[in-house]
TrEMBL record:
InterPro entries xrefs: Beta-barrel_OMP_2, OMP/PagP_B-barrel
Leader sequence residues: 1-19
Source taxon at top rank: Bacteria
Protein's organism: Pontibacter actiniarum
Domain Outer membrane protein beta-barrel: 38-180
Family matches, as Pfam families: OMP_b-brl_2 (PF13568)
Name recorded for this polypeptide: Outer membrane protein beta-barrel domain-containing protein
Length: 207
């Protein structure tokens, strides 16, 4: 799994570097799909997760509360003119929830691909799908088996971002469509409506 994470990061970084390197030469030709836009670039980002679970069956976990954690990763944003950009990311994100007796933590490697609408040179709206793979599950600080959980997740993200020079600050909500669990504590297959949800607040730096 560590090799997969490293390869994904290297691939995104390589594609971003290639597109950035091709930009100035192609702009002069007036037909470059990776033309410069107000928020184009590559960079790193990280911030706070306010994670929770939602769905009609979430009460099966008892009285649950949100869990505060983190996310971090890299992004590459490619401009298609002045208004629209496409932004793929590779993020390591911790989700989960808290109960009165314990804290559940689920770590994911996630890849959002977001449409970015540049409202002004310093403000944009982000919207798009994302997929993720669970790489770790813990109760308190002890590793637990991931077999009862759906390790593949998918969903949608939407948010707002402001930028000043090379710095970016934003907020995003990520709503999972995939069920968190596929088996109960006895190993029986189940079909329950419990999904991840997370509010992300982040700071980014582009290069």
């Amino acid at each position: 799994m560590k090799k997969t994470c490293i390869l994904a990061l290297m691939l995104l970084w390589s594609v971003a570097g290639f597109a950035q390197g091709e930009g100035p030469r192609s702009i002069n030709q007036n037909h470059n799909i990776f033309s410069r836009s107000p928020n184009s670039g590559i960079g790193i980002k990280g911030g706070v997760n306010f994670a929770s679970v939602h769905g009609s069956d979430k009460d099966k976990f008892g009285d649950v509360n949100s869990h505060t954690s983190f996310h971090a990763g890299i992004f590459a944003q490619f401009g298609f003119g002045e208004f629209f950009s496409l932004q793929p990311e590779v993020l390591y994100s911790r989700k989960g929830f808290e109960r009165q007796d314990s804290v559940y933590r689920f770590d994911y490697l996630e890849v959002p691909v977001l449409a970015v609408f540049n409202i002004t040179d310093n403000f944009s709206v982000h919207l798009g799908p994302q997929v993720g793979v669970m790489v770790s599950a813990k109760v308190e600080d002890e590793e637990i088996e991931m077999e009862p959980y759906n390790t593949f997740d998918y969903g949608a993200a939407a948010g707002l971002e402001g930028s000043v020079d090379r710095f970016r600050v934003g907020a995003r909500y990520v709503h999972s469509f995939g069920d968190l669990r596929k088996e109960d504590s006895m190993g029986n297959n189940i079909n329950e409506d419990i999904k991840n949800g997370v509010i992300q607040v982040y700071l980014g730096v582009s290069f």
